[in-house]
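quick one, 363 residues, struct below
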Amino acid sequence: MSLNKVSLEARHISLSYGATEVLRDVNIRIEPGEFFALLGPSGSGKSTLLRLIAGFNQHQRGELLIDGKDITGTPPHLRNVGMVFQNYALWPHMTVWDNVAFGLVERKETGDAIRRKVGAALDLVGLSQFAQRRPSQLSGGQQQRVALARTVVIEPKLLLLDEPLSNLDKNLRVQMREELKNLQRTLGLTTIFVTHDQEEAMTTADRMAVLDKGVLQQVGTAAALFDYPANRFVAGFVGTANLVDGKITHANGETVTFQADGVGQMVLPRTPEMPGPGPATLAFRPHTVNIRVRDEHVDASRTWLDGRVESSEFLGETSRYRVRVGEAVVVANQSHFAGLSLFQPGAAVRLGIESTQVRFLTH
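---
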């Protein structure tokens, strides 16, 4: 089973419910065959955008195009878009086979075509031997696969997934993430999925869009958004970040002086995307911060800050420290090795910020 690859483009999409703006001037292009994630917190507009693509919502302004054709006025059943809902929405009184065949029966396909397509879809998701079971006799992961088979059997132009893994436990989520990715690669089907789980988006999507309060914040690969966030929101939402407000007071050819609120003056190397003097937020990731005993010799390649450990968490591969530096709290991660003892609360430490990993954000 290999399906056609189509592009999807949202141009200046806006949608309001009364006076409440849910989507504001959203512009996204999703390439043919791409696995694309819509990521954001609750109320960001991501599910609204997905339902709009399916045809369940209607935007007031803008265009929605599949392969360059505007589908704005096309009703849901004529869009040939497949959607997997968060709760799977399987018919409890039907067998797995009948659930998967349902869309084909509705389309009045021949018996031979139905048998062939349902068989191929169940084979694709590894459920051929469960064809005569009811959904209640299946595990959560198996129900998820039935929902996927039922959606892809109609050979949709687009596959839409609304928080598809949120009802599964953590281990099963990781397994289903891999299965989803493999299925999408096998089908070559343009897929858009909504999630609030950054790890889920980062491990599966080719690219992602981050939304907040109906506004598109940034689009790119997981690595691009993680390493080069466009603003304060993206830095804090994609991964964990230290965000220190302050202002750039001086910049010369090689260095910049940053007056960090509650911390004091810091001199850092100038970065290519450096904003000019004025208010800014300094962003850096916990894993790029080196934590040392206060009186230990330190190298000059990092920017060092003195602080005291407030708390620590042992996370297995890493230990995470919250360190009080002046009036600010900085989070530092340290790789864990057997025999390495944790810094205790109250310990005087020195934090080394890897200067090349610092980003200055202006909003």
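The chain has two domains: 8-233, 240-361.
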